[in-house]
Amino acid sequence: MALMRAIQISKPGGEFELVNREIPSPAANEVLIKVEACGVCHGEAVIKEGYFPNLIYPRIPGHEVIGTIIKPGGEIDRWKVGEKVGVGWHGGHCFKCKECLRGNFRNCENTITTGVDRDGGYAEYMTAREEALVAIPDALDHVKGAPLLCAGRTTFGALKFSGAQAGDIVAIHGLGGLGHLALQYAVKMGLKPVVLSRGTTKEQMAFNLGAYAYIDTTTKDAVKELNKLGGAKAIICLAQNSKEISALTAGLRRHGKMVIVTAVNEPLQISSNVFLGRECYLTGFAGGDIAETLDFSIFTNVIPMVEVFPLEEAAQAYQKMMNAKVLFRAVLTMNH
Questions:
Q1: HEC secondary structure over 33-70
Q2: Which positions ≥6 away from 49 have C-beta within 8 Å?
């Protein structure tokens, strides 16, 4: 029996456990992937803390995966041995529900989530369903490319979804793992990104990445500063601060859109007057197309800044990410 090293979580609130497990065999509609790198994302908290109902443990987390196909399932003809592929949050769909029949596979009513409903990439090997795979261009480094499968996909998609066009002011709320990618994408899209962050530690970094302006939210009124600039066409909310998010709605210009990407546990308290007076929009966003994101990232040279950890240090990588101590994304490597 061939074994692999893997990190698993055995119960809600449990620890990251380094274990030896049998290398899985792919089903007819799956491939077996030799994992090269897996990003560490806040989404791992779902399985770590048991946020979703009906979770099954033990579970191997990880949904920013890049690796190589070493064995396709019996019904697979599109994907071949040796191909470099990626797997993101979306781990598959049913093909049968109303949304699938409309072609809206990412809104599948029975969607499968990588690292939550099925084992993910915190392991030397994993299986993935055929429809969840995306081809990884040879030009993309597997370590720096891994965060693009979730953090990149989400932020690039949110900017497109915002409706902002070249020359528009777009506020990037939070300059962390998501924010530093959103800032780079905004610059490459011809937008005028205004970074909102607490303190001045990241100010020079923001300008190095092309920020149009930087607002220290601990010393300045972000709403007043945004309105001095004419108001934001879009505000991309990436920091988990419900109080700040609630207040920022007043920094939107007429017909502006606030896009909430991060999960905020506390409720928002927003005055309807802002939306009535400026006819603004408030929406969430968790989608985006991975292949499109990868193409744009390679073409425009948007590269995540990463800190690399070996698989056995998954717990440290996760804790450092959760405490915002990583500059800017943590990535696990397998070192086969």
A1: EEEEEEEECHHHHHHHHCCCCCCCCCECCCCCEEEEEE
A2: 12, 13
CA 82-2-120 angle, 5° bins: 60
Q: Which of 248, 264, 134, 254 is nearest to 195 (CA)?
A: 248
CB atoms within 10 A of CB 74: 9
Each residue's pLDDT tens digit, 147-206: 999 999 999 999 999 999 999 999 999 999 999 999 999 999 999 999 999 999 999 999
DSSP-H helix ranges across the chain: 45-49, 98-101, 142-145, 151-161, 179-188, 203-208, 222-228, 242-248, 272-278, 290-300, 314-322
List, in order, residues 6 or more apart from 299 with CB less than 8 Å away: none
pLDDT tens column, 285-322:
988 999 999 999 999 999 999 999 999 999 999 999 99
Q: Which of 202, 207, 205, 288 is nearest to 239 (CA)?
A: 202
Mean pLDDT, rounded, for 107-134: 96
The helix/strand count (H/E) of the chain reads as: 11, 17
- Pick the closest to residue 76 from 120, 29, 108, 39 (CA basis): 29
Tell me the per-residue pLDDT of 106-115, one tens digit each, with 9 for 90 and over: 889 999 999 9
User: Among 160, 110, 136, 176, which residue's Cα sits nearest to residue 37?
Assistant: 136
pLDDT over threshold 90, residue 240: no
Tokens of 3: 């074994």
What pTM did the predictor assign? 0.95
pLDDT in tens, 241-278: 889 999 999 999 999 999 999 888 788 888 888 888 88
Long-range contacts for 226-231 (Cβ within 8 Å, ≥24 apart)? 226/169, 226/171, 226/194, 226/251, 227/251, 229/169, 229/194, 230/169, 231/169, 231/256, 231/278
User: For residue 106, which of 293, 289, 294, 262 has the smallest C-alpha distance?
Assistant: 289
Torsions phi, psi for 195 (to 5 deg): -85, 130
